[in-house]
Amino acid sequence: MMLDEPDKPQKLQFRTVWISDLHLGSRFCRAERLLHFLKSIQCDYLYLVGDIIDIWALKRKWHWPKLHSDVVRRILKSDHKGTRVVFVPGNHDELFRSYNRLVFGGVEINNEPIHETADGRKVVILHGDIFDAVVANHRLITFIGDWLYDVLLRVNIWFNALRRWCGFGHWSLSSYIKHRVKKVISFIGSYEEAVVRYAHQKNVDMVVCGHIHHPEVREMGDVLYCNCGDWVENCSAIVEHHDGRIEMLRFGFEGELDSEGTQRVAEPESSRRRAAREPEEALAAR
Prior knowledge:
CATH topology: Purple Acid Phosphatase, chain A, domain 2
Shape: globular
Radius of gyration: 19 Å
Distance between the termini: 68 Å
Number of helices: 8
Strand content: 15-25%
Order of helices and strands: EHEHHEEEEEHHHHEEEEEEH
Helix content: 25-40%
Number of domains: 1
CATH superfamily: Metallo-dependent phosphatases
Strand order of the largest sheet: 4-5-3-2-1-11-12-13
Number of strands: 13
């Protein structure tokens, strides 16, 4: 007599999922958690919003464990399950920008796609490094900053090993610095404002970006600003539900997918009301 196989856990259903800054090829990529997330979702659109493969890190020192290959295979497998996969290159994998609008293994490369939500809102999607003056104009400073960030992450590993031994939870030194140093806070604010100004130029309702490893969903004027965060520190994603609702999921180091440890940040209700009102106003104007 054969034992019944245990039921597979039901996948979370989304219309669209945006993830960025995976940094595959870096030893700090949270590939195990990322793979778990990708296995637990089903979506119509999957947008990879830049810095998916960390070519900078690979040039410094080759690091590509099996888990990173498993992540790539899972992404490629999404296409066979009916998901449209779009890769928006970032500064760490910018060499792929030369292949704009080409399709490789079911993955479409698009430097700046426009997405339409289920409730009719236009979304511009880009990595966001073009709004970082340091990245755009001072390559040497950028590489030094990237190296210092790796140093902070390396210190985090040893520091948190000691914290676990003492019975404490995870604490991120790099996140603490980013949220406490005034110049960093000022940079994040300037970056967000520049991205939103660009969204106005493109005449869209919403912008999704990455780059600064700072997950966020909030209204900035009449534009909904969404930053995917990263899979190095925050383990976060932006999702669109089938009715067009936008939400940020953030798992962090302690949180588990779809549990009490998952931080969910929904878009402001005012964005939803405006999205519902605009079609009615357009009909009334005819």
